[in-house]
Amino acid sequence: MCRWLAYSGEPLRPATLVLDTQHSLVAQSLNSPLGAEPVNGDGFGLGWYSGDAGATGTPALFHSIEPAWNDQNLRELSRAIESPLFFSHVRAAAGPPIQQTNCHPFRYENWLFMHNGGLADFDAVKRDLTFAVDPSLYPHIKGTTDSEVLFHLALTLGLRDDPVAAMTKTIRMAEEVGHAHHVPFPVQGTFAVSDGTTLWAFRYSSQGRSRTLFHSADVATLQEMYPEVERLRAFGPHAHVVVSEPLNDLPGVFLEVPESTVAVLDGSGYHHRPFLAAD
């Protein structure tokens, strides 16, 4: 349905990953071998924190309904800015219209959120889930996607205090509402959430067949594995990437995030935790 990447580490120009890798996000917008749809040309978005923003800073956003491969502004912007943490997303619309307010990532205060996947039969469950959003947050829903509703529902259920617990409640509610409307497998996707300091990447589906999700190995390990690869020297020791699918073909660079798992990335590296795993 979509493809996305998230970066955290030393300040980096987004173009390094979004444009310049072998299988960059822009390349995946034209040809996504592991995606549900090979072409993701229904808009894109970039969200980034400035170097001194930290957990309390408001991230900047750039959204466009142009195909990512055809937007000169994306090329200019992604080569001009540097950020220690940024999200990027290319969209394959699955029903909601192609418009800027439906482009990911979504923002609230210092939080960013993006999603690959969807809620099955969203038209049937949209009313119940939207009405569960806190009234103070409802005016911030600008578009018509299931992803934006899920984000604001997670905010309602405590995302700012405990992202894993809030996402657990959000997905459980989406499944309960879906089942009440006779939807057998309501939730599908990978989700990225950040407060500007920590990154949470979730992989889950009601059917147990989630969209793909990978994260990079530690840079020191990669530089030892591939000392001849000049490109790896562009990354600092704390650089990490979480992606819908690998950005290159080098074995061992990208590690698959297991089904029903949240990968938490903070200053000490990755920590995998079960997420809504079957009992």
UniProtKB/TrEMBL annotation:
It holds the Pfam family GATase_4. The keyword Amino-acid biosynthesis does not apply. Keywords: Glutamine amidotransferase. Residues 2-279 form the Glutamine amidotransferase type-2 domain. SUPFAM superfamilies: N-terminal nucleophile aminohydrolases (Ntn hydrolases). The keyword Hydrolase does not apply. This is Class II glutamine amidotransferase. It comes from Angustibacter luteus.
